Amino acid sequence: MEKKNEHYLNVTLKNNEENDEEEVALSLSAFLRALKRFLLIWIVVAIVVGLLIPSYIALFQADQYKNLSAMVSFNYSGIENGKAPDGSEFDVYTLKNPAVVQEALLEMGEDLDELETIRQGISIQGVVPENIIDKMTGYISIFEQGSTKALEEILATSYYSTQYVLTFNYSKTSFKGEKAVELFNTILEKYRSYFFKTYGFNEALGSAVTAIDYKNYDYSEAIDVFDSTLSSLQDYVNNLSKTDTTRFRSSQTGYTFADLSRAITTIREVNLDLLSSYVTVNNVTKDANALMDYYNYRIDVLTRDRNVQQEYLQAVTDALDMYEKDTVFVMNGSDSTSSNMQFSQSSDEYDKLVNEKVDAQKTVATRTQQINNYQKRILALKGKSVASQDKITKTEADLEDLNTQVNDLLEKVNVTSDEYYQTVFLSNSYRILVQASSSGLHSTKNIIKLAVQPVVIGEALIFVLYFGGCFVLSLIEETRKRKLIKQEEKRAKEQEKESDYRRNFPAPASDVFDPANP
Length: 518
Hints:
Low-confidence stretches: 1-8, 12-21, 326-331, 336-340
Radius of gyration: 47 Å
Number of strands: 8
Shape: rod-shaped
Helix content: 55-70%
Number of domains: 4
């Protein structure tokens, strides 16, 4: 019989055809018994599905998710504003520049057929700190409420990443496992050399200087070319010397930037000046008339440039005369009899004007000196005949020696500045924070990451089937059980009615069957 103390989940079924209502009561204990009955089966199926899905992904779908990840960082002045070391806009996609990928492939001895496929498989994503994300999210939330100032703040807020995550999907390449890891890490290393060559500044200078052939010029013109070259080289070295706070000395050349600057000064003030004086005094030239025209042309150009600089110098001087620095009053007491102090604060704008005035004065003085020098050359050219062949031969030999000295000095400057940029100035400008790896743990993590969603969906579906199946099964069993009980109760009632009828209406004696007298 049915237990009277069971808890029931009432499910009502209506039979409209018989105008009757059958009520089926599902006991909680019956449902729990069904859950317990199929619990082991559910656990086994869940475990099997949990293993089959990752295995399927690992065997049949992992190829399309062949990803390697690495992280790099940039650390130099200006990167926070999206600038490269030379002040130009920084393009992070140079990390997969064709030249970089090509160098990596050549170093590994691989063909270049897949160069573009490799580049397309590399994606770059900037890392944005949480505080920046929270700040932008806050502005957006306020803007959605109708604040126009929030929009201004959003437009004014910008962030340039200094760290980047690179992902290399090598599924479309012929590289596998360790080979793909080696290629990816080699690309990251080769970018270091590309970065130094691009932003080391000295290579472009060296190429421009060595591209000049002094033999294409007259002797006086060649001297001017050398002087311009040495002047540019000295400015370059002096600028490096200003930025060098470590008094860097190259381990390859043994020079500091101060040493190189003195060497350039020596060549300019001794070798070059002596040769210039010899050429001017002896009228050493290939074509006197053409040289005269050249001198006049240079005087005209220098005069116009000096006039411009003089006007600029006057404008800067007038601006300085009218400029007032920020004044600060310091009150030494609370009454009017107390002494007060007044002083002017330093101003970046004022200091900038002072520097511009000094530069303009220097330019005006240099142009004046150059004009006077060309005028002396003209007088010497007019007053004497053209030099003999012996003097011309000596001049050409001296120019050849000077050219050798300049090229040697240029090589020392390039080597020294290269080493300085790589070991001091740009030593930490580009760093590989996390290299790519093909460890078993890394591969397992990738498979697990890919399998999480399908496993969760599969397990949820299995649980729903398990839970729903147990519910339906217990409902069917309880329904069958209650029908049997009702049938028994109905049969018992019929038997009871039949017994009552027989007691009330006993059968006649003749109707009673007598086995002895059939």
